[in-house]
Amino acid sequence: MQAQGILVVLTAVYLGILIGVGIYVSRAPKTPKGGFLTEYYLGGRSLNGFLLAMTLVATYTSASSFLGGPGTAYNQGLGWVLLSVIQLPSMYLTLGVLGKRLAIMGRKIEAVTVIDFIRERYDNNKLVTVSSAIFIIFFLLAAVAAQFLGGAILFQSVTGYSYVLCLVFFTAVVMVYVTLGGFMAVALNDAFNGVMMFIGTVVLLAATIKIGGGLPALMTKVAAVDPQLITPFGRDHFISIPWISSFWILVCIGILGLPQNAVRSMAFKDSAAVHQAIVIGTLVVGMLMLGMHLVGVLARALVQPVANSDMTIPLLAIQLLHPVVAAFVLAAPLAAIMSTVDSQLIYIAGTIVKDLYLNYINPSAPEDTIKKISRGCTIVLSLLILGLAIRPPSMIVWLNLFAFGGLQAAFFFPLVGGLYWKRANTNGALASQLSGVMAFIGLTAKMPRPLGLHPIVPSLAISLCAFVLVSLATPEPKTETIKKFWGCP
After folding, report:
1. CA distance 426 to 128
2. Would you give the DSSP letter of residue 269?
3. Which pLDDT does position 37 carry in this prediction?
4. 2-397: CATH topology
5. Residue boundaries of the structural domains of the chain
6. Which residues of the chain have pLDDT under 50?
7. pLDDT, tens only, 196-239
């Protein structure tokens, strides 16, 4: 009980810091350049390199990276570690391909969300705007539900309380600091959480190797459990070559289609911040993915088989480490969960308030009304996701990957193509979204490994064909749209 009490107290201190940041930001004097919306949803476009890197890392890494992913590595071995490090170029791709151009366009058209960009780029078409908002809300709700699930599981492992009670507590903490502080509170907490994730990963990896008698001894024990765990293909060839190749799309290249990541490309201060963020973000992501997934494999030699593999990391930390060290280490997955939840939650709220309410319901709403609706929307969304997470699926990683794939199928080509291809038009964007999402959902339900691939690969191929063919077969974009984005017809 003494050890559990230490864990609970230290976890409470950590959560108190997050809430304190939200209160501080809500009370700090502000001079927003673009009004409440720009401040609340983009932090006034003022992020430096470190904040930009950490908020991107924290948004991208999640419960899947610290609970579901290592849990799958526990079951499948080193092949899943190989799969996880595919994510190494993610920061470079997001900021290098989307970063500067999306930021320039965002400032030019005063965009606060990615849908602002899509609406302006595709001739202010209402159908494209509304469909984009629906896809964001649907798939991000699934993604956030996965994070709420992970947070509740982590609290449960620390406190021993029931899953539902832990879920309610987790929801309350997130709801308070996101509602109060908005994007800047999210970014500051992401920076704090990013540091916690990095240090926690290093500490857990080092402690696991030391307690296990060194890496060679641990790998020998893992091989004795099942020789397939030290092959690139996992148990029963679960990780086939076509399937792992698909993950270059799903968790690396395809992240260009994630709106919650893309919007951070609109929030940095200057070009120097982008260059710094690419370097810092790449180093941190590399350590997090390699370190935590490798720990998942090594845990096979130290932790008895667990009923729910998502519990692998919490069980390893609690069983092997001193309570103070365990609490510090468990702050890493908790930080990943918190930072992903806050980023996705604020983005869903922005989609509802900015892209739907202000565009089509009440365009002339006064700022006080916008403030109340924005914060009220965050509260309602938190409670809705709480309801969705009460009866969770067994593995976080699959729910998270489903949300990733759906968003990529909807946004990859309308977003990237819209930035770089003048001929892309409204009909092409709409056809790309609808065909990509329907293909992804249909294949996921009926044919989860078409030709040995992940469903995202054929879904994006279908989306690309629809995007190009329909754009070429229908009228060009309006001349004023081309002038707005390229400066010439």
Report:
1. 7
2. S
3. 59
4. Sodium/glucose cotransporter (1.20.1730)
5. 2-397
6. 1, 31-32
7. 888 888 999 999 999 999 999 999 999 999 999 999 888 888 88
CB–CB of 129/311 below 8 Å? Answer: no
pLDDT of residue 43: 54
The C-alpha atoms of residue 370 and residue 421 are separated, in whole angstroms, by 35
Listed in order, strand segments (DSSP E) in 96-241 are none
Residues 452 and 450: their CA atoms lie apart, in Å, by 5
The one-letter amino acid code at 193 reads N
Distance between CA 279 and CA 460 in Å, rounded? Answer: 29
Under 8 Å between Cβ of 439 and 459: yes
Token pair 């992501």 is found at 285
Which two tokens mark 35? Answer: 């009004």
Residue 383 has which token pair?
């409670």
Q: Which two tokens stand for residue 387?
A: 């309801």
- b/e string for 262-279 if b means 16 or more Cβ within 10 A? bbbbbbbbeeebbebbbe
Residues with Cβ within 8 Å of 356's Cβ and at least 6 positions away in sequence, in order, are 130, 133
Model-wide pTM > 0.70: yes
Backbone angle region of 124, left / alpha / beta, with phi > 0 → left and psi within -120 to 50 → alpha: left
Question: Which whole-number Å values give the CA distances from 351 to 50, 363, 381, 429, in the listed order?
Answer: 26, 14, 12, 18
